[in-house]
Design brief:
Length: 297
């Protein structure tokens, strides 16, 4: 018997780089929320999934404490919190998401004598990711002195409190503005959907499975294109080879031209101009590429 009172909670970032995309993704899965006045808890209207809007740093701990069942957060923060927690529950990454991309990089002052990561042995590294940085360096046999800072890490070398930094970078503008150069990337991160290993029970499990199935449809659709064209029957094998991740095409007769057919096909990967030019060279005409909004396998 399913208990209609079971609900699950998803924590997302309240305001920041991940907020809009996280909410948009859940809305693409058909979730609608009644926004409460205090704006921290949004009730799910047509689906038993509610939203908690919090600081991103708090999301992994909320998952580990069982305050919410799901959370969308950067892998950088999830790994940091997991490594810093001493045993107990574990975080599980359910799906990697296509936003929030950045890298945790080592950087040094432009005039530094450090040449590579091995040169960091025994030196001071300022970072907001102490556990992750230590773990990544230790796995390569490098022992540095970690200086933990909660923000403005990039000014530490200029102030003389560190020889290097380990910080999130997307374009590198902040590094350049502080006369730092990137030494190497330690870790690449995107936003991801996490749960913990706390037992959910069958009702919550089935809500989660339904949500994941919708989410997979959305993620798959983001990559996919619906391609239509007219083509010579004898070019069909070539066309299947040209289109990336093409599924079995549907063929329709074209009135009055027995040797040409209309071809409709879903491609699971990006379709680029090169593909269209190759299709044209293979004899296709009237080629249309359409976005796929939803997909359920
Ligand atoms: P909060 O108030 O929720 O603590 P915040 O200031 O810590 O917000 P944001 O700057 O919004 O967080 O970054 C959230 C996440 O976005 C980061 O943890 C990281 O996963 C990702 N991200 C993507 N690009 C960058 C970047 N250039 N710098 C920092 N984080 C980035
Ligand atoms: Zn934060």
């Amino acid at each position: 018997m399913s208990n209609t009172k079971s609900r699950i909670r998803v924590a997302i970032q309240k305001s920041g780089r991940l907020s809009d995309k996280s909410l948009g993704l859940l809305q693409s899965c058909g979730l609608r929320f009644a926004r409460s006045k205090d704006k921290l808890f949004w009730y799910g209207q047509d689906f038993p999934v509610d939203l908690l809007l919090v600081r991103d740093d708090d999301i992994p701990t909320m998952l580990l404490d069982g305050v919410c069942e799901l959370g969308i957060v950067g892998q950088n923060i999830a790994r940091e919190v997991q490594l810093a927690s001493n045993g107990g529950n574990e975080l599980n990454m359910l799906r990697k998401l296509n936003f929030g991309g950045c890298r945790l990089s080592l950087a040094i002052p432009e005039d530094s004598d450090i040449r590579d990561a091995n040169g960091l042995n025994g030196r001071r590294i300022a970072t907001s990711y102490p556990a992750l940085t230590r773990d990544l360096l230790n796995s390569r046999g490098i022992e540095a002195r970690i200086v933990k800072l909660s923000g403005s890490v990039e000014i530490a070398p200029g102030l003389g409190t560190a020889d290097a930094i380990s910080d999130l970078v997307s374009t590198g503008t902040t590094l350049r503005a502080n006369h730092l150069v990137e030494l190497e990337t330690l870790f690449t991160s995107t936003a991801a959907l996490y749960t913990s290993d706390i037992e959910l029970g069958s009702e919550k499990r089935s809500i989660l499975d339904r949500l994941l199935s919708r989410l997979d449809g959305v993620l798959q659709a983001e990559e996919s294109k619906y391609v239509m064209m007219n083509a010579p029957r004898k070019a069909l094998d070539d066309i299947a080879r040209i289109l990336p991740g093409a599924e079995h095409p549907s063929l329709m007769d074209l009135e009055g031209t027995p040797d040409r057919v209309a071809v409709h096909v879903v491609c699971r990967e990006g379709v680029f101009w090169e593909h269209l030019e190759a299709l044209k060279a293979a004899g296709a005409s009237a080629i249309l590429v359409l976005p796929v909004e939803k997909m359920l396998a």
